[in-house]
Amino acid sequence: MDQFELHNRNLAPEQVSHSHDFHQLILATCGVTELAMEGQSERVTARRGCLIPSSRHHEYQGDGSNRTLVLDIPVKHLAVLEKGSEIERLFDKPRFFTVPPALNQLTHALTHQLEQCPALQNEIAVLLLRALYMYLQDEPKHIVDQIGARCISERLDLERLDAWLDQHLADDIRVEQLAALCALSPGHFHACFRELTGVTPLAYVQRRRLEHARTLVRHSALSLGHIAMLVGFRDQGSFSRAYRRYFEIAPSSDR
What we know:
It is a single chain. 50% of the residues lie in helices and 18% in strands. By secondary structure, the chain is of the alpha+beta class. The chain folds into 2 domains: 5-138, Jelly Rolls, CATH 2.60.120.280; 145-247, Arc Repressor Mutant, subunit A (Orthogonal Bundle), CATH 1.10.10.60. The strands form 2 sheets. The protein has a 5-stranded antiparallel β-sheet. The chain has a 4-stranded antiparallel β-sheet with strand order 2-7-4-5, with no helix packed on it. A hairpin with a 2-residue loop joins strand 4 (33-37) and strand 5 (40-44). Residues 140-152 have low confidence and may be disordered. Keywords: DNA-binding, Transcription, Transcription regulation.
């Protein structure tokens, strides 16, 4: 029997208010979820995660287009883990935290792994918990880095860029356009963007195209050729090849 339950969810734009008798870790790979608990209210995004202690009342509302990794953590099962007591202390109080690029990349990788091998959810959950613990226990050592990242993020508003990208996925998107939205030179924008997200701007755009494409593949009756056009691929062949490389499954099979 699995000790932990790990789910890749799309949180609907409906307000939910509840509590539960287990801890919960919330990480997003795309989209936005508004989450509030005990006077704290923030957005859970690819750059911002959340720890919800057992029995703490909380409310949330997704944007309908998010992909959110939700890990349910029964308190009694933490005792069997290496450094379980230290991990337990992470849940002493409700907590929002900055998700560094390395953790975001790991979240993406583990999300794909979970989709391909659901039977491995417990092993994937343990790996995710250990990675989170390693990051958060070292968090005070990275205060200077975080201040630098905050200065960068003030110029690179990813939520604003995401909103612009979502409206222009069918277009030819250039780095110069994105840099202009942030009032930066293309070279400076490229360097700052990579430092903040861990990927290049064009790799980020490609990932955004494919994430939106997967939603259409799975939840619409549109032809693959039409979907390819809507998210900016020149033809169905190049779309299918990129889709298979990213998700490790052909769009026709994923449908």
